[in-house]
Amino acid sequence: MPRVCEVHFEDNGLSSLGCIDQMVSAGFGAGNSQLTGLNVGTSNPAASLTLLRAYAAHRLPSLDVVNGAVGQVDIALRAPGLSPLA
């Protein structure tokens, strides 16, 4: 699999968190994943979902940035394998 460090979704009608599950199924959440950034553009309904950042952090533990936000994750939202995502 090619090494991808950042994914941007723009103008493709994403309306649920299913896109994150599909990324995990495709191998982006694997142990040696290089994926550190995810951007779900505001043109997608999913961008306004309250749990987008927390769900992405949980399912894709290599992420450092979701929609441009960087920082410390709320420890209660992250399972064992903590990562510095806000």
- The domain tally reads 1
Mean residue pLDDT: 79
Give the overall shape, derived from the CA principal axes: globular
Beta-strand fraction estimate: 5-15%
Poorly predicted ranges (pLDDT <50, ≥5 residues)?
A: 72-79, 82-86
How many β-strand stretches? 3
Query: What is the ordering of alpha helices and beta strands?
Result: EHEHE
Q: Give the helix proportion (percent range).
A: 10-25%
Rg over C-alpha atoms, rounded to the nearest angstrom: 12 Å
Number of helices: 2
Main beta sheet strand tally, sense and closure = 3 strands, parallel
Structural class: alpha/beta
- In spatial order, strands of the major sheet run 1-2-3
The end-to-end span amounts to: 27 Å
Task: Write up what this structure looks like.
The protein has 86 residues and is of the alpha/beta class. The protein has one domain (6-77). The chain is 19% helix and 12% strand. It is built from 2 helices and 3 strands. It has helices at 18-25, 52-59, and strands at 6-9, 37-40, 65-66. Strands 1-2-3 form a 3-stranded parallel β-sheet, with helices on one face. The longest helix has 8 residues, at 18-25. The radius of gyration is 12 Å and the shape is globular. The N and C termini lie far apart (27 Å).
Summarize the SSE layout with pairings.
Blueprint: E1 6-9, H1 18-25, E2 37-40, H2 52-59, E3 65-66
Parallel strand pairs: 1-2, 2-3
